[in-house]
Amino acid sequence: MLKKIYSKAFLQRIIDQPWFYPAVLLVIGLAAYGWLIPNLGFYWDDWESVFLNSLHNPSISFSFNYYAERPFSALSYLVFFQFLKETPLAWQLLALFLRWGGILFLYSTLNAVWPERQTIHRWIGVLLYVFPGYLMQPVAAAFNPHLTSLLLFGASLWMTVRAVKNRRLFWLWMPLSVLTGITQLFMLEYFVGLEILRPVLVFFALQGRPGASKRRSLVKTLLYWLPFMVGLGFYAWWRFIYLPQTLPADPNAPLLLREIIKSPIAGLSALVSTVYQDIGYLLASAWSRAFSPDVVNLLAKTTWLAWFSGIVAAVMVTLFLNKAFRSDGQAENKTTRNLIFLGFLAILAGAAPVWAKGSQIAVGKWSDRFALAAMAGAVILIVCGVDWLIKTQNQKRVILAILLASSIALQIDNGNKFRLDWELQRELYWQLAWRIPALKPGTAIIGSGTFTDKSSYYDGTYIINLLFDPNPTANPRYAYLDIGHFPSYKYQPDIPIMADLRGGQFSGNTSQAIGIYFKSSGTCVRVLDPIYAGDPYFSQDMEQLIAISNTSQILTTAPLELPNPAIFGNEIQHDWCYYFEKADLARQMQDWQTVLKLGDEAKAGGFTPGKGAEYLPFIEAYAQTGQWSMAFDLSVSAAKVDLGHDLKPVLCTDWGMFSGIAAGSERDTYLSKAKTEFCGTALQ
Questions:
Q1: Phi, psi (5° rounding) for residue 233?
Q2: 529 and 550 in contact (C-beta within 8 Å)?
Q3: What are the φ and ψ backbone dihedral angles of 446, each rounded to 5 degrees?
Q4: Where are the alpha helices (DSSP H) in 523-591?
Q5: Is 500 helix (H, G, I), strand (E, B) or coil?
Q6: Looking at residue 330, what is its pLDDT?
Q7: In the 8-state DSSP scheme, what is residue 446?
Q8: Which residues have C-beta within 8 Å of that of residue 191, sequence separation ≥ 6?
Q9: Using 50, 70 and 90 to split pLDDT, how confident is the model at 471?
Q10: Using CA atoms, how far apart are residues 156 and 185, in angstroms rounded to an integer?
């Protein structure tokens, strides 16, 4: 019995140590994100920051339009890139710790104001770390300023409350609080609405003192808030009056506010609809994501890992956070009411900058990034709602544990999607590098779409320059254009191509462009060439693009080792696509023996194509070297690869071109057989 009591007392002393909850919180973060961190890469706007760092010119970074409106964002990149370089793993770990630190400061702030509600605050912290409405954690470089702002904002609130609660160190904490608070405003506008939380927290902190009157607390609150109001006022002048005069266009202009002023009824109607959808998303639908069929897929190993990790972590937290909630049957609690009020204020104020510019949290592919500021309010309301509405202690713990387990499972599943996307990205980039060792400056690559689901068409230019230019410049030498954003009237030679980046511009023309086709894993990247004309997988735009695809822009040797393994990782394993890309390059250079050698190596390795058209370089090489029977047999095999997609028209056209080849005594025999097999009409 004594041993049991001693053990419980010993464990409780450990749990009560100031370092214990931060350690638990970090373990929760590692459970949700740590499994997959080593296998994640760069996504979406990560590429812009990596490209800017590759310029090795800080002044250029500050001149980019994105940083003109968020000047300290450039500063955060300049600092962190000095240490992290272009290493995805380092950026992923930094993102994990920045978010951990920001949440710890928010947790400590709540504890400082309401120390009697520590259990509630601990649950708020762990759920905030894995909030299911924010799935951008793997986009680590692009969201570095966002998470840095979260850290600075949380630190500023904590230091403000420290200054109020500890008058002896007021002149240390308050200046630091003002400095960090204003710094995060100029780093990112996401948390500007949450500034309204500061006077509320200060007021509640002052009210916690014995004998404090509301009138005196209110006066002191305004005095404490005064330097922050001055900073906020300066920011508002700079952001809404001065800055718009210096920019050609403001990408974050308050469009909805302008609409409300211009047309109050229509504007307010749009605002009400947006608020309704976003609040519903933050408080309800985001939490149900983990139970969707693609996350609860019992046939997937990731599902088992995700839910096992979530359940174990949730049980651990529930055991460690074993202090009681509000007692059963207790009358309405003033502190709980204050927390609920804070939650409502935080969710509205956090989303206000998003709504003001006409955006939504619940609508749009990348829009859940806007939840970053509003999620604190959502989690406070969820946890306090459970505490307020549920009767027994065990029921409360079970509900919060389910929310925690499902959120961790969702984040692991989401991380796995990013992992698979990075694998697909690397396949595409290395295939491009195999097929295109180097490019003439001024080349535009026009592709069949966005590289992957986790990238964007406008970031393609950054990727292409990092891939092919050993010394990138602010005005890039290369550009990538998604065919969906390339007007069809430009499918003609000598049409100028201008691609604007945030701080630079590419200048070229269609006569210096090459087209590429790619679709998904298992299909090789193809540089467009007349040999592929009529491919059943090509859209009409792709067919038109063949006419202007100038493969002479491709050079066979690169000036330096590219791709940069620090960015794109080590060269991927050689599979069928390696031999195809190398063979297609050799075909372009009319090096037929190399094409055949690569074909033999691929066959010896047991590799086969995903699409029949990927046999075409080898078919032509057999024809060019007079091996007509081999060319015909491989053509027949190619036609059988794509069930439901008829490759025969392509083969008919190519065999028609082969009629000009003089090599081989069996030429006429196999041209006739090809006519019968693929064309149905005489080859000309």
A1: -65, -40
A2: no
A3: -110, 120
A4: 540-546, 565-568, 576-588
A5: strand
A6: 42
A7: E
A8: 149, 150, 153, 184, 185, 350, 373
A9: confident
A10: 11
Highest mean pLDDT among 62-66, 82-86, 422-426: 422-426
Q: What is the pTM of this model?
A: 0.90
Contacts of 161 (CB under 8 A, 6+ apart): 109, 112, 113, 201, 202, 205
Over residues 595-618, the pLDDT tens digits come to 999 999 999 999 999 899 999 999
**φ/ψ (deg, to 5) at 481:** -125, 125
Residues 402, 406, 411: CA angle, nearest 5 degrees: 150
The strand pair at 513-517 and 444-447 is best described as: parallel
Query: What are the domain boundaries of the chain?
Result: 2-418, 436-572, 575-684
Mean pLDDT of 70-97: 88
Collapsing DSSP to helix, strand or coil, 513 comes out as: strand
Distance, CA of 8 to CA of 27 (rounded, Å): 22
Say if residues 27 and 125 touch (Cβ distance below 8 Å). Answer: no
Q: What is the largest CA-CA distance in the chain?
A: 108
Across 59-80, average pLDDT: 72
Q: CA 611 to CA 598: how far, in whole Å?
A: 17
- Distance, in Å, from the CA atom of 559 to the CA atom of 438, rounded to the nearest integer, reads 8
- Is the pLDDT assigned to residue 563 strictly greater than 90? no
